[in-house]
Every structure is written in structure tokens, then in C-alpha cells.
Amino acid sequence: MSFVLPEQIASNGAPEATVDNVQLGSLPAGRYAVYRFSGRRTEDRISSMKTDLVSWMRKQGLEPAGDFLTAGYDPPFTPPGLQRNEVLIRVEAE
User: Terminal CA-to-CA distance of the chain, rounded, Å?
Assistant: First the structure.
């Protein structure tokens, strides 16, 4: 699980973690290709969405760079059809 901090907070330094299993990190700025989907985020479904995203990127002449990220925006008790999710990957600079 990860969280995005507002620029004002991140630029001053994120708060220190109070437990050992929390790590602070950052993602490089850049252009990302994103595939939005609804429903549960199962491994099979995420794998299928990654394949669809790469296929679309290739048709657009875009090359993936780096690892995939997944994002879920709703708590697990949200009905599956209303859950908002994304698969993202950075696009190779032109």
C-alpha cells in the first residue's frame, strides 16, 4: 500500500515512520500510461490489464520503461462494480 503526499509536505520531508514495516520512497516524474478498470484487483485481472495496456501502448508507438504499478482507490468493502483501479507504467522518454 502506498500514499501520495502533497507537494508542500513532501518538499519539507515526509514524517518519519513510527513502525519498521513502513518505508518512504519516491517515484520519478515522467509520463505514465494508465489503464483504468473497475472490479476486484485479483492477480489474474491485473495481469490481463497489464497485457491490454502494453498492447495499446505498442499501437501508439510508446515503449514501457520500468515496472508496473497498481492503484486502488476504494476500501475493500466497496461493491466490486464500484471499485476504481488503475494499472500504470512509465513511458520511455522520446
Answer: 31
Task: Tell me if 47 is assigned to some domain.
Answer: yes
Spans of the chain, pLDDT less than 50: none
Helical (H) or strand (E) element with 44: helix 43-59
The pLDDT value recorded for residue 17 is: 82
- For residue 52, tell me if it sits in a domain: yes
* Dist CA 65 CA 50 (whole Å): 13
**Enclosing domain of residue 41:** 30-91
Tell me if the pTM is above 0.85. Answer: no
Mention every residue, 6+ apart, whose C-beta is less than 8 A from residue 74. 82, 83, 84
Q: What is the number of domains present in the chain?
A: 1
